[in-house]
Amino acid sequence: MEEKRNPEISIRKADPAEDAAVLVGIYRPYVEKTAITFEYEVPSVEEFRGRMEHTLENYPYLVAELDGKPVGYAYASPFVGRKAYEHSAEISIYLSPECRRKGIGKRLYAALEDVLLRMNVFNLYACIGVPEEGQELDFLDNNSMQFHGHMGYALIGRFHKCGYKFGRWLDMVWMEKMLCGHPEAPEGFHPFHEVLQQD
User: Fold this and answer.
1) CB-based contacts of 86: which residues, under 8 Å, 6+ apart?
2) Which pLDDT band, with edges at 50, 70 and 90, does 6 fall under?
3) How far apart are CA 191 and CA 183, in angstroms?
4) pTM reported for the whole predicted model
5) Within a domain: residue 147?
6) What is the distance between the alpha carbons of residues 74 and 95, in angstroms, rounded to a whole number?
7) 3-class DSSP assignment, residue 109
8) d(CA 154, CA 126)
9) What is the H or E stretch that residue 123 is in?
10) Which of 52, 59, 66 is nearest to 14 (CA)?
11) How, if at all, do strands 168-178 and 123-130 pair?
12) Each residue of 82-138: pLDDT tens digit?
C-alpha cells in the first residue's frame, strides 16, 4: 500500500524577477474566466513585474509554494493613500484553482496579517466582486466573501451594479478585519523592507 505523503506548504517573499511569469499565469484564469477581478486584459509579464516591484517598495508581497512550486500569492497595498490611512491596508489573494481548499489561502493570509501587524497596520480591507443578490453566475460566486468571513473579516458595505464584465452588472463588497486594538498614539508605519531587516 502506497504511503500518503503530506505536501509541504511554505510562504516566502516574492521575487519579481523570478516569480512574475509564474504568478501572472496563476492570475490569468481569474481575468479570462471569472469576475473575481474586474480587470479585462491579462497584464504582460513585464507589467505584472512592475506591479510587484511597486508593491514591494512599502508593502508585503508573499508567495505560497507547494512542494517548491508557486501555487498562490497574496499582497497588501495602501488603503486610499492619504497619510491618516497609513494604519490600514487593502489585501488581495489568488490561488491556482487546483490548490483551493488545502489551507494554502489561510496560511498566506496568516503570514500577511503577521507582517502587516509588525508594520503597524491594524485594519485590513478586502474589495470583493460578487453577483447581484439572488443571482447565480458561472463566472462569479460568493466563495471569496465566505472565505474572508471564515478568516474573521466582517461585511461592512455593498456597492450595487458598480462593475460590468461578461455582459453582466456586478456588485462589489468591502470586508474589514481589525488585527488588534487601536492604541491612542500609535507608532508610525514601518515599510515592509524595514520589518524584514529586523528578522
Assistant:
1) 78, 120, 121, 188, 189
2) low
3) 19
4) 0.93
5) yes
6) 9
7) helix
8) 10
9) strand 123-130
10) 52
11) antiparallel
12) 999 999 999 999 999 888 778 899 999 999 999 999 999 999 999 999 999 888 899
Angle value at C-alpha 81, between 162 and 173, nearest 5 degrees: 30
CATH code for position 53: 3.40.630.30
Provide the residue range defining the domain that includes 101: 9-184
Domain total of the chain: 1
**Residue 197, in any domain of the structure:** no
Find all residues with CB under 8 Å of 163, minimum gap 6, and list them: 35, 38, 129, 169, 170, 171, 172
Taking only the tens place, the pLDDT of each residue in 72-93 is 999 999 998 899 999 999 999 9
In sequence order, what are the residues at sequence separation of 6 or more whose Cβ sits closer than 8 angstroms to the Cβ of residue 139?
33, 34, 35, 165, 166
Instruction: Please state the three-class secondary structure of 20-84 as a single string.
Output: HHHHHHHHHHHHHHCCCCCCCCCCCHHHHHHHHHHHHCCCCEEEEEECCEEEEEEEEEECCCCHH
Structural domain contains residue 199? no
Query: Crossing angle for the helix pair 45-56 and 16-33, nearest 10 degrees?
Result: 110
- Tally of CA atoms within 13 A in the half-sphere of 174 that contains its CB: 11
How deeply is 57 buried, as exposed, middle or buried, from its count of CB atoms within 10 A (0-12, 13-18, 19+)?
exposed
> What gap in Å lies between CA 51 and CA 13, rounded to an integer?
15
Note whether residue 194 is domain-resident. Answer: no
